[in-house]
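Methods — Computational structure assignment.
A single polypeptide chain was analysed. Its primary sequence is given first, followed by the predicted tertiary structure written as structure tokens.
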Amino acid sequence: EPVFPSHNLASVYPPAAEYQQVASGVLAMSLPKPVDNGVLWFRPEVKENINWSGDPRKPLDLENSDAGLRLRPRTSFEIWKVEMAGISTKWSHGDLFAANDLRRSALENDLARQVRREQEAVRARDELVAVVSHDLRNPMTVISMLCGMMQKAFSSDGPHTSRRISTAIDTMQQAAGRMNTLLEDLLDTSKIDAGRYSITPQKLDVGQMFEEAQALLAPLALDKDISISFAADPDLRIHADPERLFQVLSNLVGNAIKFTPRLGTVGVHAKSVGDEIVFTVRDSGEGIPKEHLPHVFDRYWTVKEGNPNGTGLGLYITQGIVEAHGGRIVAESEPGQGSEFRFTVPRLD
């Protein structure tokens, strides 16, 4: 029990009889902690003499007679005195209410301390990620630039040694590129978590944006012979950050291509619905299991099968960008029938 009262402690804990003069009554309050913790109040013994009419040890007499045993009423009603020991004054309802209220307040204060401690830990982590990501970005940029300079110095058509060096430089550039992408994702994640993610919106024509996006993203599908198409209703205009919106499309289209088999299809569409523009990215891939759908936008959640290098940040950042524009994003999928991601952006009249 959270609060335990007793005015006769020795009756529930016999060893307490040794100190019943100072602790015959107890009011105990437990506090849930990593280790056992509690508060105890004690009350001293209050001795009391109780007078009984007649000796209870002799309630009746039996006598033998020719008719057998007969009951004879008590003949003595002398006062019989009993001293009550080991008992304290009883705890009142007010005492119990005060103990419960004190316990509730202690739990609330402890919970508030834990929340503050967790918030401070998260804030420290986000600050560390932001500082480390920012400070590492400059060295990675230098490495990429030096790789480009070295690549120019070694031709892939030259001697065998030059070709090996050129191949090594290509590998370094790819690794540096992946590292830069990861650093950017970590920076974006820390800003979203801290509520400091900002965008620079401007007037955009959706049709023109789709043309530019197709020119940049279509080559990603060539290696798998995937057919990719972009289609938008005419005269669609939005107020959005062009770089961030392209990042959203790049993440969604990149995932669609990654999880779509050879000779599959990926379609990107935009249409006006009320005061919003609805963007849809649909693929003919294997789809997402129903139990995974609620988690696809969770931070660091990823499917390892077919995506060994995934960090689980892409869709989390995508959701943060869409929400920063005042929109929302949802995912629908049926196993074996592909997936569909839809997000909205307010329409510009």
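Note: Residues 25 and 256 are 71 Å apart (CA to CA).
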